[in-house]
Amino acid sequence: MLDDYHLMYETYGTLNAAKSNAVLVCHALNASHHVAGFYAEDPKNVGWWDNMIGPGKPLDTEKFFVIGVNNLGGCFGSTGPASINRRTGKAYGSSFPMVTVEDWVEAQARLADRLGIERFAAVMGGSLGAMQALQWAIAYPQRIANSIVVAAAPKLSAQNIAFNEVARQAITTDPDFHGGDYYAYNVLPRRGLRLARMIGHITYLSDDAMMEKFGRSLRSGSINFHFDVDFEVESYLRHQGDKFSEYFDANTYLLITRALDYFDPADACGGELARALAPATARFLVVSFTSDWRFAPERSREIVKALLDNRADVCYAEINASHGHDAFLLDDARYMALVRAYFENVAAECCAKKTA
Amino acid sequence: MLDDYHLMYETYGTLNAAKSNAVLVCHALNASHHVAGFYAEDPKNVGWWDNMIGPGKPLDTEKFFVIGVNNLGGCFGSTGPASINRRTGKAYGSSFPMVTVEDWVEAQARLADRLGIERFAAVMGGSLGAMQALQWAIAYPQRIANSIVVAAAPKLSAQNIAFNEVARQAITTDPDFHGGDYYAYNVLPRRGLRLARMIGHITYLSDDAMMEKFGRSLRSGSINFHFDVDFEVESYLRHQGDKFSEYFDANTYLLITRALDYFDPADACGGELARALAPATARFLVVSFTSDWRFAPERSREIVKALLDNRADVCYAEINASHGHDAFLLDDARYMALVRAYFENVAAECCAKKTA
Predict the structure, then answer these.
(1) One of B32, B78, B83, B127 is an active-site residue; which one?
(2) How far is B162 from chain A (nearest CA, A)?
(3) Residue contact A168–B223, C-beta within 8 A
């Protein structure tokens, strides 16, 4: 239970009079409400899906009113473990409640209420964001016309959970973690968070993509017989880990990975995903990437199969891409053209519509 | 440089008069010289390849004289970082020299000299052990009749190195690591070693095998909304990590993963593996496992291709097995029958042979 909470969000474009052109973009593990564009005072801080979202882009902010929201429990402005609990005057820390994908969708629905948006033209996300797009279609079928589910799985596999668990163990066994209440000690469990990010990063990239990007290239041209950086890939991972541990909150990392682990809409329906998706009335676009081994195409096909079993309206595309899970964030002409074409149909359907 | 060193080894079976029936079994990351059987005083401590090696087993110790050796730098009796440096009276710790696959083969060759074995009937290994079997064929073509290369790669990929690097970072950033000289502080970097083992374990198993073994099974039957163990796979990984961190030396883990990273016999030949393997005159058996994503069948085929380019005598088998990299240690009727048949041929060739 939380007495109250803030949600940090950003909007792009203009909500039309009918309020029928709103698109909610849900973020994955490490991203935020800042989905596109940049701030005048900080031009280098470009939104995480800026190649997808903006004026004239596949999700065209000249047509759509796009909302990015930092999820509850996050560390980019929404209430999370690092926020001050007004009851105690201290950071929530370990007392912050667990959050689930369902909670996030609830909170996003309340945000939509505040903005006067009864029905989204689309809810869209990749990875964990796609799970939210799926949950929207289940929980609020009347409030979502299209669900765009990119690089997703209907639930984590044992291997997925295992990687999350190692990341969490890295954080919680860091001596600076202090049971989650490190804020009071003026330290941060940076070592653990850094390792968590390094592990995560490996799973976002394919073996082929890493081979192409780094191969066995050596930093100094030769092997130095030490445990410092020899290979470029080591330098890259350390840099990613260092950077991440400077800006991300470790408790948020724990919460989000746990929400990922727990998401399993079919569980309440005896494991039958089609039954779980039965309430959905949205149209679906499901996209997967061939080299994604974190959420492989087979996992997306489970979703497609369940939707087809329900005779839902679903487009499915399997993009031949070498970049692994990260492909959902990268430019690929076919992927971009597909999303663009899909949104053109959504625009034709939703944006011109008058209020009922 | 080391002034001297010990190698711990075990032998099984009887060296024949011609000394032509010796088989060297090389270990991978976490194993030892104790490849088969058990000790009278410790019947539960069964050798790591006991299903493969023993009387009447595929590598039949009634025919062959089998040698298991703990590699230089190890922590099971051979000289390693935890050993006392006689010059200082203290553990080597961070001053222990880096060791390579080439060094191990050198040291094993010296052991063979001591045992009076001029030529091995076979050198055999899985994973990192297979790299040693490969290096034997390159470095000592006259001293090895057969090279048995199981679940191998001719060099690590960027992803392989990346996983090793995260494991090493977990160890070296553990506050109890003390730059590798933790022995002097009466502590062990257990947290780091535990994480390293957890990461490793995920890569030894396939996604399918983990799904089959653990699925999303819950320890207590329901989700508890905490960061303690909820899923069986979490319990398994923690247990594996805890156990390992009790008996394995962290510095040895660092050394061995670095030896893995560095091994790349083709590097000195302009990246041409066939040229690197050109000196080899041994017969080869190369075995891979379909679900092994750590060293996938494609990696074994690189070795086979290079051997065929050299018109070497090579048998290759790709075993349809679901257990991932670990499959090389597990019973599989086809795999076992294959190795048995191969060794029957080796026995016919080597064991009956008279001294020249």
Answers:
(1) B127
(2) 6
(3) no
**Catalytic choice (B230, B249, B292, B326):** B292
Nearest to A152 by CA among A77, A218, A101: A101
B178 in catalytic set: no
Alpha helical stretches, state H, B150-219 = 158-172, 190-204, 207-213
Cβ pair A109, A26 in contact under 8 A:
no
Please tell me chain A's helix, strand, coil percentages from 3-state DSSP, rounded to the nearest 5. Answer: 45, 15, 45
Strand A65-69 relative to strand A22-26, pairing:
parallel
Per-residue pLDDT for B135 more than 60? Answer: yes
Q: Residues of B with CB below 8 A from A201's CB?
A: 162
Looking up tokens 């016999």 gives: B265
Note the residue count of chain A: 356
Q: Which of A164, A171, A165 is nearest to A190 (CA)?
A: A171
Assign B317 to helix, strand or coil: strand
CA angle, corner A198, sides to A192 and A203, nearest 5?
Answer: 130
Determine if the pTM surpasses 0.90: yes
Place of tokens 């203009």: A14
Scanning B226-245 for CB atoms below 8 A from A yields 226-227, 230-231, 233-234, 237-238, 241
Q: Does A172 touch chain B (CB under 8 A)?
A: yes
Mean pLDDT by 10 residues, chain A (356 residues): 96 97 96 96 96 98 98 98 96 97 98 98 98 98 98 98 98 98 97 98 95 94 93 97 97 98 97 98 98 97 98 98 96 97 95 58
Instruction: Please judge whether A261 and B213 are an interchain contact, meaning their C-beta atoms are less than 8 angstroms apart.
Output: no
Closest CA to B140 of B286, B281, B347: B281
Between vectors from CA B68 to CA B97 and to CA B326, what angle results, nearest 5°? 90
For residue A43, give every residue at least 6 positions away whose Cβ sits within 8 Å of its Cβ, in sequence order, or none: none
